[in-house]
Design brief:
By secondary structure, the chain is an alpha+beta fold. The protein has one domain (2-103): Translation Initiation Factor IF3, CATH 3.30.110. Helix content is 30%, strand content 25%. The chain contains two helices and six strands. It has helices at residues 2-15, 63-80; strands at 31-32, 42-50, 54-55, 59-60, 85-88, 96-103.
Length: 106
């Protein structure tokens, strides 16, 4: 009986916004700005990141949780590219988003 109750509870918790993506130490140093705040920065490329936006087929995850995870992955990816700043380069589509990566700090 407990197993049949726990499964739906676990699925509900997963769908409501739990996050599995963690910000790295270097990713923590990457800031998110608007394009107008990148004047004087060097564009060093683009990072395309993705997370699952659904569970068990049709069960959609919380869009805010997906967006937070994508931002975190974007910051982590920028740090791996030796960038220190990102701007969204696209909207979120099927759990994917692209970010422009910049080097703004000396």
């Amino acid at each position: 009986m407990k197993k049949t109750i726990m499964f739906p509870v676990c699925i509900l918790l997963l769908a409501t916004g739990c996050t599995w993506v963690k910000l790295t130490r270097n990713g923590d140093n990457v800031r998110i700005v608007s394009v107008s705040d990148t004047q004087g920065c060097k564009n060093i490329g683009q990072a395309k990141v993705s997370v699952r936006d659904n569970l068990l087929g049709d069960l959609k995850r919380d869009p805010n949780a997906v967006a937070r995870e994508l931002m975190t992955l974007g910051r982590n990816s920028a740090a791996e590219m030796n960038g220190d700043t990102i701007t969204p380069a696209s909207g979120i589509v099927n759990g994917e988003q692209s970010f422009n990566v910049y080097k703004c700090m000396p």
